[in-house]
Design goal:
Layout: H1 6-14, H2 31-45, H3 56-61, H4 80-124, E1 129-131, E2 137-139, H5 142-153, H6 177-197
Antiparallel strand pairs: 1-2
Length: 217
């Protein structure tokens, strides 16, 4: 059980409005924006949870390279140096992709624990209403944290890029923050377990068939 304090609750709430903050992106959220927000929340909650992040090594061990191997062949007019550079990028791709997905999963896990912490604070009756540096007031909205987790699991693809999400019934005021907090943790447990055990080759999704492609198809 995390140690609930007003100070930590306030500092977490400020991550919804003051940089580095969690932003509900319409189209795309860059990892360079998501990571500082996750790091800030992790620093607040580090001693309150037993953190278990996914294993990149386990994921790499399941890597199925279904790329076209002919692309590794040196073309007749290709300079040797350029060819070697291209070959290095080809070889490094699985590691790069795995690291990117790991970072998005880490952001989602941290945000899930932030949602859980704030929901516990809400149930305890702590104040979850903050004033940002620009003078606006923000209150705790569990749905926004849940949406942000979903953005992270879709590697930055925002709400306008999604197909109709299967959890629409959860995103309602009637569902309550407690339901969303538990649902987020269950969702992440399943995604992480699958990610560590299997790889979809050159596919670029943590959650299959849950978002539109950028071109809208």
């Amino acid at each position: 059980m995390p140690h609930l304090t007003q100070d930590k609750a306030t500092r977490l709430m400020l991550r919804t409005c003051d940089p580095p903050r969690i932003r509900i992106a319409d189209n795309l959220l860059d990892l360079d924006e998501a990571k500082p927000a996750a790091d800030a929340m992790f620093a607040i909650l580090q001693t309150d949870y037993q953190w278990s992040f996914p294993s990149a090594d386990k994921h790499l061990a399941t890597w199925h390279d279904d790329r076209d191997k002919s692309r590794c062949t040196r073309s007749a007019n290709e300079d040797e140096k350029l060819y070697q550079q291209r070959l290095e990028r080809w070889t490094a791709w699985p590691i790069y992709k795995t690291d990117q997905q790991f970072q998005w999963l880490r952001c989602a896990i941290i945000t899930s624990n932030a949602l859980h912490y704030l929901q516990q604070c809400h149930d305890k009756g702590l104040t979850l209403d903050v004033k940002c540096t620009q003078g606006y007031r923000y209150e705790f909205i569990p749905e926004e944290f849940f949406e942000y987790i979903w953005i992270c699991l879709n590697q930055g693809y925002g709400t306008q890029q999604w197909k109709s999400p299967p959890w629409n019934s959860l995103l309602s005021r009637e569902a309550g923050g407690a339901v969303l907090a538990v649902s987020a943790q269950k969702l992440l447990a399943g995604v992480v377990d699958q990610w560590e055990q299997e790889d979809e080759g050159d596919e670029d999704e943590l959650i299959q068939a849950k978002k539109k492609k950028v071109d809208g198809t």
